[in-house]
Design brief:
This protein has 111 residues and is mainly α. The protein has five helices and no strands. The protein starts with 18 loop residues before the first helix and ends with a helix.
């Protein structure tokens, strides 16, 4: 297998994610993230819009605590990235991260 930019230890499970947080995160994901990303077959994005990676494996590839920093200010984390500033508030970032993490984790357990 090839080298990766960041190969984290197995991710720590986040605290219990409540339904309101997940619903808010899903809505924000649909409004913001689907402009560039798909989420496996859970939330498909037309191929013409797919500029960023599929996020279905985010819970396997990244650390939970890293997501807010990345979504909040991707240029500070990885200068030169094509990821755009999402203009989300910290609470909105928490909601999107929770939705992504839960959806990704659920997809991994279904395999």
């Amino acid at each position: 297998s090839g080298a990766c930019r960041q190969c984290p230890d197995p991710p720590a499970a986040p605290a219990v994610l409540d339904d309101t947080l997940l619903a808010d995160g899903q809505l924000l994901y649909l409004l913001k993230c689907t402009e560039c990303h798909n989420l496996g077959n859970v939330i498909p994005t037309p191929e013409a819009k797919r500029q960023g990676p599929d996020l279905i494996n985010v819970s396997r590839r990244l650390r939970w605590e890293w997501l807010p920093a990345w979504v909040g200010n991707p240029q500070a984390v990885y200068p030169g990235t094509t990821m755009v500033d999402t203009n989300l508030t910290p609470d909105e970032i928490k909601a999107v991260a929770a939705f992504l993490w839960k959806t990704s984790t659920d997809a991994q357990t279904k395999k």
